[in-house]
Amino acid sequence: MFEISTSLLSAKKGKEAEIILGLEKSGTDYFHIDVMDGKFVEKDTYKRMQEISAYIKRISNLPIDVHLMVDDVISSIEDFISVEPNIITFHLEACKNEDEIFQAIELIKQNNSRVGIAIKPDTKIEEIYKYLPYIHVALVMTVEPGKGGQTLITDMVSKIEKLSTYIKENDLDTVIEVDGGINLATCEDVKQAGAELLVSGTAILMAKDYKQIIDELKK
Predict the structure, then answer these.
(1) What average pLDDT score do residues 184-189 get?
(2) Of 34, 37, 65, 79, which residue is the catalytic one?
(3) Is 209 an active-site residue?
(4) Full-prediction pTM beyond 0.90?
């Protein structure tokens, strides 16, 4: 069984409680929080995602999966620690050097969250290999980060497959998470390639029946 992390990026204002409780009832495994600072990516969702995360914490027991698309990784980790996320993922490309990457990994672990590192479509998968023994989740972006509702870049499927092979060959426990353009038409390819945790937003939130889509994505 695959796990689903539902992105709340396109959740309508004023409908948050209805959406969160509806998703919980429908069997989503995580709430995916897309944190953007207007610098690392063009869009700025920072304050909105802080509000939504705090709201989830008040009304739901489901785990929060925070995806930081920001320049200032350390400060952002510190800002989101208070909502006790199950996973905090930051971008490899946002860090200036290896020391900063390990500083971020350590900070997340010290605050009892699982560590994820994300890579953009243009980043070679090999660049993440050295960090895999120290993290819990490797997030492969299958679209350019920063916008919801994009189409999955099909070349990314072979990237997922390559990462999956490396993880198996090196007997690692790292979970492969995939984010971008995940729907009923694209999920099969990424699952067969080795993805275990699928991020989907638009495909679920646009559906009349959340449960039906979530169940199909999990199969």
Answers:
(1) 95
(2) 34
(3) no
(4) yes
**Homologous superfamily in CATH for domain 3-218:** Aldolase class I (3.20.20.70)
Query: From the centroid of its chain, how far is CA 48?
Result: 17
pLDDT greater than 80 at residue 1: no
Question: Of 29, 37, 79, 179, which residue is the catalytic one?
Answer: 179
Model confidence pLDDT, tens digit, residues 39-63: 999 999 999 999 999 999 999 999 9
Residue with tokens 């897309």: 34
Query: Beta-carbon neighbour count of residue 42 at 10 Å?
Result: 10
Residue 120 Ramachandran class (φ > 0 left, ψ -120 to 50 alpha, else beta): beta
State the distance between the two ends of the chain, measured CA to CA, in whole angstroms: 6
H-helix segments, the chain: 16-26, 46-59, 73-80, 98-110, 156-169, 187-193, 202-205, 210-218
Confidence band of 136 (pLDDT split at 50, 70, 90)? very high
Q: Which amino acid is at 38?
A: G
- What are the boundaries of each domain within the chain? 3-218
Active site residue 99: no
